[in-house]
Specification:
homodimer; alpha/beta; eight-stranded mixed β-sheet; 15 strands
Amino acid sequence: MQTPTTPPARTVRNVLFIMCDQLRADHLGCYGSTGALTTPHIDRLAERGARFDRAYVTSAVCGPSRTSFYTGRYPVSHRVTWNRVPLPVDELCLGDYLAGAGRSLSLLGKTHFVPHRAGLEEHGYQLSDAARTRFLEGGFTPLERYDGHYEMAADSPYRQYLLNQGYGGDAPWTDHVIGSLDASGAPVSGWFMRHAALPARVREEDSETTYLTSRAIDFIRAQGDTPWALHLSYIKPHWPYKAPAPYHAMFGPDDAAVPVRHAREQTAGHPVHRAYQRHEESESFARDEVWRSVRPVYMGLVKQIDDQIGRLMAQLAQAGRLEDTLVVFTADHGDFLGDHWLGEKEYFFEPAVRVPLIVVDPAAAPGQVHQDFVECIDVVPTVLEALGIAVPEHRIEGLSLLPRLRAGQPLAREQVVGSLDYAYRAARLHLGRQPFECTGWMLRDTRYKFIRWEGYAPQLFDLLDDPQELQDRGTDPALEPVRRRMNESLVDWAMARHRRTSESAAQVVHRTDAHQRLMNIRIGTW
Amino acid sequence: MQTPTTPPARTVRNVLFIMCDQLRADHLGCYGSTGALTTPHIDRLAERGARFDRAYVTSAVCGPSRTSFYTGRYPVSHRVTWNRVPLPVDELCLGDYLAGAGRSLSLLGKTHFVPHRAGLEEHGYQLSDAARTRFLEGGFTPLERYDGHYEMAADSPYRQYLLNQGYGGDAPWTDHVIGSLDASGAPVSGWFMRHAALPARVREEDSETTYLTSRAIDFIRAQGDTPWALHLSYIKPHWPYKAPAPYHAMFGPDDAAVPVRHAREQTAGHPVHRAYQRHEESESFARDEVWRSVRPVYMGLVKQIDDQIGRLMAQLAQAGRLEDTLVVFTADHGDFLGDHWLGEKEYFFEPAVRVPLIVVDPAAAPGQVHQDFVECIDVVPTVLEALGIAVPEHRIEGLSLLPRLRAGQPLAREQVVGSLDYAYRAARLHLGRQPFECTGWMLRDTRYKFIRWEGYAPQLFDLLDDPQELQDRGTDPALEPVRRRMNESLVDWAMARHRRTSESAAQVVHRTDAHQRLMNIRIGTW
């Protein structure tokens, strides 16, 4: 672990918060990717800043993870337990905090955010135009929201762009962005993974990753010297697994890592794990032809992102913004791609819950590498502190990374916590459970990963002996003391969650034992 | 335990939800009060309806308990952990649910409710006039809000009433309602318990309990045959302990029960218990002259409430409303009055957390007595179901009592849970703790009461052997298995709280594995 020596005396004026969707940490060079896939531009980012080797999301699903990234709170607190669960109307996001300080947080790309319109109606809350946008968009000011993975609405700028570039038909995304032509020249859909290896019909310069990067470059250029904050949120390498040329063929089946999995997981796996193995994506990825087709395309999509990061950073340098811009590069979760006989994400194995997190703080020394446990909830307090905005500590559950980056102070955290609500998945039906009894919890420390399931025995992995998590020790009698200790830590953590969000600690202190001082009330005076 | 046989076929059209403040269950005849204090009118209420012998509040403090009564949710969920903590802007109260069904919930008396105005501003939410009242008043439509225990604002109707009745001066509440004249004719304040035994200067017919009852009678009379719902919320027998004649002298020191306490609690009590013993009210009530002065006045205040309940019920009968009105009679918590070397309430001993709960359901058989564990969160679903309004089960954590009352179905609950946030009390300062590490939890089942404290060893009471809770078994090695079991039950309960409040179970089921059906998305198809 390296720590900074003399950090440069610079002030952060801008924020570039880059998120990839479904990007595994181990597919980046700086996180140890091996073989054909290199990511020199992202590696360079890490060299200029700090790489966090133990960065975890609070839940390996877009909705809860992103809501944690945007609110600085755990899913148990923000209550968006799965995709498209509306955000309760009392929650505040990073963009709301920036708005409170007279700034705004622009958005290019995906958020997956769903406002709780019904909640607004139940209370009779009305909104001014300015407040309405923040309500509808999770605090963001969208330059262009683009959630990906479905055909775009008629007024979508990217759709208009594609039509203007000559991609014909009513469904340019379906036909060109994820569409291919087969050997006979017939159109085939990227929704089917058997077509993954075919190139997208869209040209590379018009594909999702490049298009969003271009918009970001336009935005940064247009700001000139005016301070800005931008969330550049790529949809890739998220499915549909479809890359434009030349990325579709940059890697072959033999370049792909073989899935990490063991037959024992199929026959004797945990009931919830086995239920997840019955999902279609898991059954598909269990077949060699599937991962051998899809993994190379996934690698190509990562390579494309790396190239675009290079292009973006070159623009940032050219605009003179390297010295006053805080850059955060991360992902909302990983992708199993067949590991543990699973497709997609969710669950608690490392390929899903561990993410890349690179922070380039111009006021910190370059080349930092940290083993501290960091969580996606740390982004909000880090950004707020970097911009000199007070962190509302009675709401924010994350920790600012600036003391670590600028002063070498280790983070006050010895474990990370994850959660999963599988109520919305077929796994619930396979297991015959009700919608409100499908919660799993993960506690991971330097050695063990403990998973507590509602209604089932726990799981335990010894990451020292078994870094690939192939040997579930959830019922190993020898490790009963470890499970008990881990469970107690998890429970202590859960029971200590801050429930009080409508008064700050300072307000509590002000009101402590203050009946007489504040209210002229005497209690118990003889 | 008695169960109904053939319930009368009646429909509930009106709701009379009566709450007393700080009323111990054991001071009512039907709950076993002995000696001089009888409560024939409240006893009659129980005879006409159902008495729940094991009714508990979720927290023995006004704020969190009332918020549970009004939201149907535990403090861990509604997040009003102590008095005057603003209610988060996403919470809904009973009056809001009634408003959603075109009804309203009128208020006479106390709620202790504080809206989260800052939360409204942070989000930019604006309110129409109708919604504003519900926001400001916790869903109620105030006929007259009267929180008691401080001098009233200039426009308070009760203040105007007192002035019109000839109670002079600028501070009629201070001077007359809680003021007395001493032996020399000099005015003395009811804030000092040494004056408790003196009669209030206010006449009984103008005192708080009687005044509020009169307003309730006016309201019910004015409704005629129009359906109504009223929360009649007495401030008494809450401090200041001051009764009007003749109630001030109806009982003497020898009529009062001797406080339940043991010297061991002072010397070897739990650290949090001992910190509470250092509060001024506890130190006062530890002195015999204090409880011997105050307890008789408290009894007088209870007696006055009983007489006023008699008057109110006579009016209800005269108006023909007995047959279509659901009556709920309860309290927000009890009062230690020196028990366990404590004054006031809070903590988890039975005199504070157990409350009277009488439900008169005209559609249920009379004379029911139940030992089911019921909680204050059960009132909201009971009222909603009685009025034919759908219970939003993804929000409401209580259970409707109607299946018990009307069909003899035992409640599906084997324990009650309480919580306490002592961050606002001097106890926190005595213990040197921070505002966010002051939570205690109680789990009580048919035999044991287990208390889990943040940062301290637990407490355990065997209520079979030790119903007075004088022998803390928190460190008794023989009961380690019991503590472990209770802790696990408590933790299981806590970990299973429903976090998802913005989607119903039906919505979850609708969206389960529905990517393709609802969004035309294929995940993992080869």
